[in-house]
Every structure is written in structure tokens, then in C-alpha cells.
Amino acid sequence: MDDYQYKHRGRFAQTFIYLGKLFRMFLFQNDWKVLPMAAIIAGLVCFTVGANNFKTMEGTIMGTFALACICVWNGFFNSIQVICRERAILKREHRAGLHISAYIASHMIYQCVLCLLQVVISVFVCLFMKMSLPEQSLVTPWPLVDFGITMFLVTYAADMLALLVSALSRTTTTAMTVMPFLLIVQLLFSGGYFSVPEDAMFITNLTATKWGQTALCAQGDYNSLPMVSVWNSALKMSNLEVEGEKPLLETFRYIEENQLRDELLMKSGELNQKQEYNFDSEIVLTCWRWLVFWIVVYVALAIILLEFIDKDKR
Amino acid sequence: MISLFINDGVFNFQDVIGIIRYILVTIGYFFIFKKCGVRKIFAFVPVAREYNIALCADKEKEGRTYSVLNAIGYVITILMRIFGAYNKVVLFLSIPMLGILVANYIYMIKIYLGLCKIFNRRKLWLLGFGFFEALTVFIWGVSKSFVPSKIYEDHRKKDAAKTLGHDIEAIDEGLTVNITDRTVIDFFKKKTLLKDIHMTIPKGHMVLLLGGSGAGKTTYLNAVTGYEKANANIKLDQMDIYKEYSKMKYNIGFVPQQDLVRGNDTVLNTITDSALMRLPVEASVMERENRIARMLDQFGLESVKHNLVEKLSGGQRKRLSIAMEFISNPDLFILDEPDSGLDGVVARNLFVSLRDIADSGKIVVVITHTPDRVIDLFDDVIVLAKDANRTGRLAWYGPVKEAYEFFGKNSMEEILLTINQKDEGGEGRADEFVEKYADRIKEKVG
């Protein structure tokens, strides 16, 4: 009967046992493949939308949206299958004394490292591809660190959402079926790139892309950038003839000759500023808080759901 | 099904059609339920009637999804009525509603297809159910020419074998099992999975757990180990497993049927992690290392300890799975089909090592579907059988040789055939032996 007086390892110790297991899996189970994948995706995004990112308003909206999307993509792929693929094993281990909170905590730490590495790789690729990045800092003294923190939080929030889906799904097939739906929600309801009806705007708060894009736009001082779309559209009509003359062409010539173009583009931007993208540290911090809030919610839900794993039918 | 709309409190033509349609379906269902032996009253209960029509069609599983879909559909319909003035809300709700309707229609077809089969009617009737559901259901219900070939059987209502009715005394050294019953609520229905199981297993015994499919073997093991608690009193050496489960679970080893081990880790790391998880914190590093080395040696894994688990053979993987549980040196050791997928020689060797474990003073309980090739290694056999109510009952617990005499058979497989239900190819004598065994125990314990 003395046997029952012994203590067994608690949550803290179990977390590190599983962390060791996860890092071994990183090597043995080819989890490392997500790192080169992050580099390739970042490279593709820089190649397609990197030229005007943080240079013009339109380019910034497109570029920051694309950056938020690669973060969400990376996060989703990191952990969408990690729990459901070993659900039966987890059930057995839970039966033998594993604490679900320790299991999730080990995943949180492991995924945190993975997300950090992916962000470092992505930022490095952005620099290598000569994509302009925010030049002024808002929260920390280093603009690149501010930018990296936003990228990390978006990736990690998406990662934890995928972890929740993985905890909810009984099979990898289910998880992989749910993932595209979540991805579409993240893209469509970001609220920055695609316009969402006013009544449905509250849904945008659910998406990591919204908070990521908003923070990145604020960090990139979106409201101080020129707007070029009006100019480009007008330029296409420069040869328009009115009573045998081309008044628009004359105007454009005048603007160019007097070097007024940049002033005009800046004026155009000034008239299209968005308050939510102000160069303000409070905006960035609010975005970060929201992302952290969702991370906590996803993790808490994942733990609660997995506590019921013993109820899984055979 | 989900189509009873009444707009703005005023009945328009569409509403009247909807109401007539609903009444026709209700009448039709009422008579179909009567013909099929399902409770007629459910024809009037939304959601429940969708489940019960599936019972008539012998599509119980589909019926669950169908009724849940209907329930969600009704909720969305009500919400649409409440927020009818807000176009955007209605529009937003119509997105899931559309999905529900499509899924609902698919399940409806599946169920009516089953109904056609049960009523021996051509599949062409599906067109009737699909396009004129209310009228078709009504005709099938009221017309006497539509007769089902199979009546729904509610096994819960049958008379089952009598019970022992009281607990037996706990033993000082060993396992005492007194299960009154183990019930679950399954889709609003109470199901008794196990009932009236009483026994004492002394230490050092290796026990075979025998029973047909669905007889409750795994439920019994889960109840005994405290993993899924039953209305029971389970004691290991006078210690109540249910009350002390959090402490005692480390003294109970359970090896599942499948090899639930991560393939992409080495044998040594896997077993080391098990040791860290299962051994007490007080165990020194030396003790732990010794225990790991002993397990590797005892289960023949020393030569492959640096290999990845996925590279092991079926037998090696099974032995690893056992070693992971046995590392904590549990007093009660339970194995669910440890020989599945193993050939005769490998399986025999595995059972010999289990016999060694039992001989070291442990209780070993094993489920196997090929008992006769290793029956000489067992001390006792537990025979679980499904009674007339489809509840798992104890038909025998005792020495192997006495079991042969009790059932009048020469092998475990023959015993299994005797107790299995007739629709499973057996002799359907489970209730007879359950009663006979209960009488025998009553004589013994008084």
C-alpha cells in the first residue's frame, strides 16, 4: 500500500519530457521542412508584391496583406495535423497519467520556436530580396524587431488556431478539410484588402490577418505614403481628345515639367488616409493584444477539448 | 422536413400548404411507426420522429445525423423568424441553412432508401419521397399493402437472465470486482453495457477474458481499471480503485490492442519517456536506468534499442508497447489482444513472457481471439456473454478445466460459439449459462 504514497511527475516536468520528444520529432519526422517552405513562400511574396510595399499606399495594403497571409499559412501548416495524427496515442498516454495542459504547453513552446525561426527566415528573405521594410520604430527601439514581433504574433496565433482545429478533429483528413475554410475566412474577413459589409465588420476581429495587417500598416506609416492609383488611372486617359485637343495630356506635361507629380501623389494620399493605420504605438499594441488574446483563447479551448479525449469512441 | 413557415402571423397559401404537408407526414409516420414496432407517439415529436423513421429503415446511425441536422434546421428557422426584420441577419443565417438543407436531403434519401429495402419496394419510390414526400409517406403509412419485412427490436424490453444481486467479499491480496452495472446514455437512450459481474482474482493468476463481439470485454476492463467508472466496487488488495484512482492508475498497466507508439522515435527514447512518466519522482537515476535496462532485456529489445520504432517488426513493436506499461511494475496488468497480427510462434513466446509476469505475483488479464493455442498458460477464464437485452453478463469465471465441464465443450472457441447470439452464427445460449453460473455462485457464497 506504500506504493501509492509515491509522487509522479507533474505538469512542469511532463512539459519538458514532451518537449524533448517534439524536438526529436523535428528531426526524425521531417518537421524541419516547414523552415525552407517558409523561405520559399516569403521569396514568392517578395517577388510578386514586394516592389511597392511600404512605398505607396496601394502597394502597402497589398504587401502587408500578403505578409499577413504568409504568416497565417505558415502557422496553419505547422500544427494542423500535430494532435489529430497521434490522437489515439495521446488517449493512451492520458490514461497513463499525462496532463493535457502539459502536452499543450510542450506544443506551445515547440511551435513558438518553430514560428520564431520561420519569422526570422521570412524577414531575412525580405531583406535579401530588397523589399523595403518599416524604417521607424514604434514600440521597441528597432523597427525590424517591431516588424518581426507582428509577424511572429500573426504566425503564432494562426498556429494556435490550427492546434485547436487539430485538437478538435478526430482524423488528419478532417483537419485538412477544415483548414481551407479557415484560410478563406482569414483572407476574406481581414477587412483590409477585401471590403466587408459594415454589419459584418465585427467578424474581422476574429482574424489574425486583420490585426497583422493593421499593425504592419501602422508600422509602415501608411498615412504618410503617396497614393498612385488615381494618377495611374488618369494617365491612362491622357490621350483623351476634347474638341480636337488633349487637355489631360497638357495637364500631365505641366505637372511633370514643374515637378509637381510627387506633391500631387502625396496630396492624393493625404485625402485617403485611414485613421486605423496611423503611425501610433497604441494601434500596434492594440493589435498585439488582440493577437495574444486569441492565442490564449485557442489554447484554452484546445486544453478543454482534449480533456474529454477519454470519451472518444473506440 | 424543415419547412413549416408561418409568415407575419397571417396564414397565406404557402403556409397552408406547409401545414397540410406537415400533418400528412405526421399521419404517415404514425402508421409507419406502428407497422415497424417503433413508439407511435414520436410521430408528433419533431427531431425524434426523424430518428425513429431511420430506426424503421434500419439506418440507426444515419438517423442520428438526420435528426441532429433537423434540430439545427429548426433552430435556424426559428432564428430567421425572430430576426425576420433584419435582412442581413436572415441572409447570414441562410448560408448555414443552405448547407443544412443539402445535407438533410442527402440523409433523407439514405433513410428512405433503407425504408424501400425494409418494405421490399422498388427504389423508384425514392422519386416519390424526393418530390412528393408528404403524400408518399402518407400512402406508405395508411395503405395496408405496405408491410415491413423487419420489425424494429428494442432489446431493452426483453426479459434477461436473473442476477446474483449482491456483492461478494473482497480478498486481502488480489483483485475484487463487484460491478452492479455499467450504463451509458447513447442518443437519449439508456443502455446497460454490463451487469452483475462479481469475482475475485488472486495475485499470480493469468486470466483469459473471453467473449464475443460486443459482449463488453473492453467495457469490463475499463470499468475494472477505473478508466470508465461503473456502478461498482473494485478493490485491489483492499484499496478502492475508484476512490484512489489518481494514485492507483500507476499500479495498473493497460496495453491497448493497437500499437499506440510514436513511430518516429527510438526504442530507447520511447521507453525512457515511459519510465519518466510512470516511475515515481523518488526513483533515482540509477534505479530508472536499471529498470529501463531490465525492460529492454526482458522483452528482447536490447539489440534494437537505437532503432526507430517504425522500423521494428510487429512482434517487437508489441513487446515495446508491453514494456512501456510494465516499466512501472504494476500489480494489475491488462492486455487487449496482444497477439493480434502475430504469427503462432511469436504469439506463444509473448504469452510465455506474460506467464512469467503472472508468476512474479502479478495479476495478468488478457483478451485474445485465438485462445486455444495458448490456453495451457492460463489459470482462469472469464466468459462474458450478451444476454437477451444485449447486455454484457458473466457466464463463467473460474479455472480453465472447469469451464470446459461447465459448458460441456472441449475448446474455448466452442464455448464462444455456444454463448454467441444466433444472428452472429452462435447457438444463442448465453442466458442459459448466465443463469446457471449465477445459481452456482449463489450456492457457493450463499
Kindly describe this structure.
- The complex is a heterodimer of chains A (314) and B (446).
- Chain A has 314 residues and is mainly alpha-helical.
- Chain A has two domains: 11-223 and 277-311, no CATH class; 228-271, no CATH class.
- Chain A has 13 helices and no strands.
- In chain A, helix 6 (143-168) packs across helix 7 (172-188).
- Chain A is elongated and about 100 Å long.
- Chain B is of the alpha/beta class and 446 residues long.
- Chain B has two domains: 13-151, no CATH class; 174-237 and 331-445, Rossmann fold (3-Layer(aba) Sandwich).
- Helices cover 46% and strands 16% of the residues of chain B.
- Chain B has helices at 13-36, 48-56, 60-82, 87-118, 125-131, 133-142, 217-225, 245-248, 267-278, 285-298, 314-326, 344-359, 400-407, 412-419, 430-445; strands spanning 174-186, 189-202, 206-211, 231-236, 239-240, 252-255, 332-336, 363-367, 380-386, 392-399.
- The N and C termini of chain B lie far apart (58 Å).
- The model of chain B is unreliable at 1-6 (pLDDT under 50).
- Chains A and B meet through helix 1 and helix 4 of A and helix 9 of B.
Q: Give the proportion of residues in helices of chain A.
A: 55-70%
Distance between the termini of chain B: 58 Å
Indicate the mean pLDDT of chain A: 90
| Average predicted confidence as pLDDT of chain B | 88
Low-confidence stretches of chain B: 1-6
The structural domain count of chain B equals 2
How would you sum up the global shape of chain A? elongated
Oligomeric state of shown chains: heterodimer
Radius of gyration of chain B equals 28 Å
> Into which percentage range does the β-strand content of chain B fall?
15-25%
> In the CATH hierarchy, what is the superfamily of the largest domain in chain B?
P-loop containing nucleotide triphosphate hydrolases
Structural class by sheet pairing and helices of chain A: mainly alpha
* Main β-sheet description of chain B: 10 strands, mixed
Number of helices of chain B: 15
Give a count of the beta strands of chain B, DSSP E runs of length 2 or more: 10
Largest protein interface?
A: A-B, 32 and 33 residues
Structural class of chain B, please? Answer: alpha/beta
